Amino acid sequence: MHDPSATDTPPKRHLGSWALIAAVVAVTVGTFGYVGGWLAPHRLTPKRIVDQLQDNAGTFAGYRRNHAKGVCVTGYFDSNGHAQAYSSAEVFAAGRTPLVGRFAIPGSNPYAPDSSVPIRSMALRLAQANGQQWRTGMNSMPVFPVSTPQAFYDQLKAQQPDPATGKPDPAKVAAFFAAHPETAAFRAWAKTAKPSASFATENYWSLDAFVFVDSAGKRQAVRWRMVPEATDAGSDVDNSGNPDYLASDLAQRLSQGPLRWHLLVTLAQAGDPTNDATREWPADRPTIDAGTLVLEHTEPQESGPCRDINYDPLVLPDGIEASDDPLLPARSAAYADSYLRRTSEEAHLPGTAVAQPKPEAK
Question: Average of pLDDT values for 171-197?
Answer without folding.
Answer: 95
